[in-house]
């Protein structure tokens, strides 16, 4: 569309706008944690944003996201994934200590051997304090926590694999302030 063309706001656009407002106004119902039962943490990171979801029995307990600062953006992809796990566990420390944890991420390399970076080794040791039973379980590259980063459009076909609470009909971005 060129600057000379005038945009036409029709009933179709108004209907789509109203539907999008309704979806955005709908809140996700968070479940109350059942202590003694395992918690599942899904994390993901991009170069600019970290995100995670804590679930139990497929129901969300908490959503978390954080914008990366300049120094965090310099970390490699596996460092950002590890950082998202660590910051989430720090944020919900009192809820997670002593509980069975299963951490799901799309970075399989976090399960192998020592890191070359001392800072990442310290992060890993701090994560071990929480005693995750499945430290890192590889999943698809579009884990649930991307709900914190980007809501997927249903036309991509992959949304059907997400639980009902994550099946949103519109693409929208959530930014942490």
TrEMBL record:
Tree of life domain: Eukaryota
Matches recorded under InterPro entries: DNA/RNA_pol_sf (IPR043502), RT_RNaseH_2 (IPR041577), Viral_Replic_Matur_Polypro (IPR051320)
Stretches assigned to the Reverse transcriptase/retrotransposon-derived protein RNase H-like domain: 9-102
Protein name in UniProt: Reverse transcriptase/retrotransposon-derived protein RNase H-like domain-containing protein
Species whose genome carries this gene: Phytophthora fragariae
